[in-house]
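#structure-requests
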Amino acid sequence: MKITVIGAAGGEVTGSAYVVQTSKARVLVDCGLFQGGKRVEAKNRPPAKVQSKLDAVVITHGHLDHTGRLPLLAKLGYQRPVFATKATHGMTGLILRDCARIQEQDAERYNRRRLRAGEKPQEPLFTSGDVETILGAFKIVPYQKPISIAPGVKACFAEAGHMLGSASIQLIVDEDGRQKKVVFSGDLGPRSVPILRDFEPFHAADAVFVESTYGDHDHRSFQETVEEFADLVGMAVAQGGKILIPTFAVGRAQLLIALLSWMFRRKKVKPFPVFLDSPMAIEATKLYAKHRELFDDQMLKYIQEKPLREDLQTLKACVSPDQSKAINFCEGSCLVMAGAGMCNAGRILHHFKQNLWKPETFVLMVGYQARGTLGRLLVDGATDVNIFGEKVAVKATIRTLGGFSAHAGQTDLLNWVGAIAASKPMVILTHGEDRQRNALAQCIKKQYRLKTLLPMQGDTIEI
């Protein structure tokens, strides 16, 4: 068996994808989009050599950096199954449809310029039609039940605790009279963060591919982060400033909604205007409500005590552009959750343009900011940024709240590996920048004495 890493390697975090080739089958694990600036996004080409020979695709979860190249398979005529959990199917549809809409709108705008300049128009990376085609190929799988996905290959999905429907995947391969097990962690969530259940590790593998996004440190404790969040919100409200939160529509938005409910219910702050300025986050929240079977006991108990909507009477969902623009005329303090989470597109850019230059504004970063994104520039202390071709001074207070991350920190990653370490697997670290995955590799070697590899994109590993 050979596994080729075709994304999220060599210090790159996005674009997760692996081709697993056995003597009988070829399986693609994830098919993510590269994100983080023009140089990185230039890698988003159709995997032409892959699609024609694939027997199946398996998806760990719906985030764009794990699903965003799936429509390219449809564009090239892929007609085999895509296996994922029910919630991942819903989330993938939501995210890919939104991405296609943006691609089509951008292409239409840029092509008007090209035509005026006498240049040939360019097609979007993929279309809404490509998205619907690939979504039609999805096959829903249960958790913790091995299913046959290709000749000689079974897949078992286990809770990853990262987002609604997320899973780690164990491939069980029968080849030449022997059985091998390969595990792909997908993205792992931190333990003890509310709403979703904690990850469930596997206990046997010959090789394991592990994400290492935060492999060099632990996040600040969730409870401390909640307290800091409440303090910052209280401070901003006292100063009459806007609170801008670049928010991933899936996962982070729902966590923040739950925390605001808790703050209002426990009288940590008097209710004030809150805007969920993201059509996708609004739809994702509806999907969360449909999948309460994936909630942890703590969240189930909380919503049984009283529905969140009773606490959040000042929350307004902004669907239309006009509703989003109206936020500019909101007097006094308000909190705005808007995409994109890495500040590389979306409505948050318009709010930044209107408010970054105001000293009373607070910007709270509650998720990972990839290299090359506007969010990373702000986190790194930029004094001015370019938004829609205009220079905007950064006078707002910028704070990072790492304890809200949907990714496991170093200790949780090591605990996940520890559950499988007794089977002495080879450990391959991907989905992390060099510093993070190097640090995690050293910890794994020291603590578990396991062989670790740090592949580059395009490297092939033989099992």
